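Quick one, probably user error.
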């Protein structure tokens, strides 16, 4: 009996030696989340990103976004933002409900076997936010086109769910912010580019504030592309520098956001400001008559 008791005790200690480190790490992790420990609870990324994103990824988000676009179009770039594995606990809850939905929506096939309608299944990791950067259709008098249009900014996360720990105050804003930053970074990595007034954006009330926090300026007159904001080299350098300098801000607590912001600021700093602004002035001065005399409200004036 003594041998049996010793054997049981040894087995118990063996299992405890395996479980205790896990329990300890979980306890410390939750303590870090509650007390704001910088090493465990504060530094994490809510979202992962793919840029440029494949059209199939965008199709998972919304098939209509890529229904009328060419698959080999090199003049447009998509970005897709996903929830990361170390997101808020709400991710576990959403995955649970998603799995329950899949399990309860099975159909019986003709051969008598159960087939699961995956829909938005766990294996099909659909993006929570997408955006597109494409070359503008407006050309100058020399036939050149140096402007880009940032549009199709979509996000499935609720705007009403506020969180002070998120960039912009909510997961919705943070996901769109990642989209915008990634497309700006992708543009700056191109060869022989300009930034001053080169990126035009079709923004909403939510995305407009995100753009302004990144140095974009409101347009003075609406054009055919209906852009509301335009890029500014001086404004973006100032705004991104402020984001980096805030050591207690959201950027400092997210390693990927910090790295992305540093890359953007570094690439902006490498541009020759005088040359970039001169190119913008030359491009504006040589613009053809496409937007001259254009009235964006012409289609509705006949009903007034």
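Nope, works fine. Designed sequence:
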């Amino acid at each position: 009996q003594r041998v049996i008791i010793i054997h049981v005790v040894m087995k118990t200690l063996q299992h405890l030696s395996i479980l205790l480190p896990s329990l300890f790490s979980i306890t410390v992790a939750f303590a870090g989340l509650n007390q704001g420990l910088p090493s465990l609870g504060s530094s994490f990324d809510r979202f992962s990103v793919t840029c440029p994103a494949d059209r199939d990824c965008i199709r998972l988000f919304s098939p209509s976004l890529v229904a009328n676009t060419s698959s080999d179009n090199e003049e447009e770039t998509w970005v897709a933002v996903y929830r990361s594995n170390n997101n808020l606990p709400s991710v576990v809850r959403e995955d649970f409900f998603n799995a329950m939905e899949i399990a309860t929506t099975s159909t019986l096939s003709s051969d008598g076997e159960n087939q699961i309608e995956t829909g938005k299944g766990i294996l099909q990791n659909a993006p929570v936010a997408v955006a597109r950067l494409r070359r503008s259709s407006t050309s100058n008098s020399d036939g050149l086109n140096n402007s880009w249009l940032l549009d199709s900014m979509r996000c499935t996360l609720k705007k009403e769910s506020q969180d002070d720990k998120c960039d912009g105050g909510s997961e919705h804003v943070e996901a769109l912010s990642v989209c915008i930053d990634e497309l700006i970074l992708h543009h700056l990595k191109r060869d022989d580019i300009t930034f001053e007034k080169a990126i035009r954006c079709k923004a909403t009330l939510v995305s407009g504030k995100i753009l302004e926090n990144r140095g974009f300026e409101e347009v003075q007159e609406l054009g055919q592309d209906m852009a509301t904001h335009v890029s500014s080299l001086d404004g973006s350098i100032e705004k991104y520098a402020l984001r980096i300098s805030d050591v207690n801000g959201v950027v400092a607590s997210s390693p990927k956001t910090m790295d992305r912001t540093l890359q953007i600021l570094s690439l902006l700093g490498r541009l020759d400001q005088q040359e970039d602004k001169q190119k913008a002035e030359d491009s504006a001065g040589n613009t053809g008559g496409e937007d001259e005399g254009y009235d964006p409200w012409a289609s509705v004036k006949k009903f007034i």
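The chain has ten helices and nine strands.
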